[in-house]
Write a sequence for this structure.
């Protein structure tokens, strides 16, 4: 995967995320050069709709997703994202 999807997630560009996720051979669990998944990045910034779309496409939830949503860039906990992660984890 090129960096386009990572950039779209980072910019909270939901339309581009949807478009790129629709392409074949997209691994939503691939990591960037720092070892972060797309879902971890979206959780960190609290991008609820992007998180939801990634989960719908098979993104795996791990402890880093929760940790990043709890200790976000804004120093606030993203409760809505954490709740979404719990919902998907219990499926």
């Amino acid at each position: 995967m090129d960096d386009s999807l990572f950039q779209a997630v980072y910019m909270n560009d939901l339309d581009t995320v949807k478009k790129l996720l629709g392409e074949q051979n997209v691994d939503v669990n691939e990591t960037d050069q720092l070892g972060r998944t797309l879902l971890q990045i979206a959780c960190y910034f609290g991008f609820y709709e992007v998180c939801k779309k990634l989960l719908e496409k098979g993104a795996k939830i791990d402890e880093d997703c929760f940790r990043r949503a709890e200790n976000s860039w804004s120093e606030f906990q993203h409760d809505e994202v954490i709740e979404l992660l719990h919902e998907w984890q219990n499926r």
Observations:
- The two ends are 28 Å apart (CA to CA).
- Residues 81 and 87 are 10 Å apart (CA to CA).
